[in-house]
Amino acid sequence: MISALPDDILLTILSLLTLKQAVATSILSSRWRYLWTSLHTLNFRYEEILHRNDDDTDNEWGCKIYEADYMERFMQVVNQVLRSHKAPKLHEFGIHYPLDASRGDLIDIWVAFAIAFKVSKLELNFSTNQVPIWVCSFKNYSFPLDFFDKTKRNEPYLVQLDRVFSVCAPPLNVDNGFECLRELILKSVDLTDEQFETILSSCTFLEFLHVLYSSRLVNVKHAVPHMKLKSLEMYRCFQLKKLEIFAPNLVSFKYLGPKINSSVKDAKQLVHACMRSNWETWEFSRTNSLGLPNMQRGDFVFGQFAAYLPQIEHLVMDASSFGRTKVLDNGPLLYNLRHLSLLLEMVASFVKVSPFLHRLELHFELYPLQDPELRRIAVSPHNYLKEVLVSGFSGNKLVVDLIMVVFDFAIELEKIEISTAYLDDDFLVRKSIEQLHGRMPAQAQLYILDDGL
């Protein structure tokens, strides 16, 4: 019987359940009654804790989340579970509810509890993304960084601060020395330029930094080499004008936002790069395989990273930023490039200089320009290109012609995925896909990523 298994195995099983489900096992038998109190993972999600009526619309449910009864119920559940908790250490601790500074004292207690139990991953999600922002005026909760102050003999056990929404960062102190922190994800955290620099200065063992929707960043600069930073992601910081980072061991750099002057110094290990420009709010629902949304349009000057192109393995960019220039014609072959994701104009040039390319992603605007230059692509047979992904496909003739040209030179093509753009009339899309079926290499498989077709 399963109840005869050792506690460690049973706790592993419980960890696969939601917290509500894990607590519910206490009614099974005396063997299970208190087992859940030793869980190493505590994630409190309002969707799982609170009851939603079947007839509630999304707006009605969103409004209920702000009602005092629902909020009090959520906080009571958290407090009850924490009072019963017995595990000596926490691997994960998360709060997922749109709370603000009015509940700051209680949130402080929860954070202190997690730190006292040497939490490895701390997640505070106070986002209003799932509920209507107009029902409540937020005053942001300030994360108590002084809990980790070494001068108070409180060792920082935090390894990962994940998905922090709507949190105002107070002044940082380099002397805090977050030696255990490896991964920091800040979403909707209004960092200043100085605070961003101080994070890199104080978190000397930080390996991954993700910043999304930080509206106060303008001129970001970290001139001292950060020897541990391997991945930097900067998304939609719309006031940002300049970014200078010195990270000799940086492996991945991803950027989505306004055109900026960027400099990543001495990144000899850089193999994953994404540079996308966007001021549009509309985007396709699907994401590319590097996890970024396929945006409608953009024109970022990728030339600032030209020196790193020969070492890049995965590249996502707005190829349209090159226009009609001959950036790659006289450059070196990109022998390391295996995965390429770009927009239109530079397809031929990149394929020509990437002899070992395995995967090609093509992202089209909803209504592509009628550019006859896209038809005139001359590429020698490519022996390594196995997969092609097309997003934003609307059946436009120029796009169809371009894909057929890819069929001609990708002689070893095995798979093509097409994600269609939303259109009221999909007749043209269907007809164009039939044309592609007729021209596809015999060994290749076609997949349409749209349930309606």
TrEMBL record:
Protein name: F-box domain-containing protein
Signal sequence, start to end: 1-24
Gene3D superfamilies: 1.20.1280.50, Ribonuclease Inhibitor
Family annotation (Pfam families): F-box (PF00646), LRR_At1g61320_AtMIF1 (PF23622)
Organism: Gossypium mustelinum
The keyword Signal belongs to this UniProt entry's keyword annotation: yes
Keywords for this protein: Signal
Classification via PROSITE patterns: FBOX
Ranges where the F-box domain occurs: 1-49
Keyword Chaperone in annotation: no
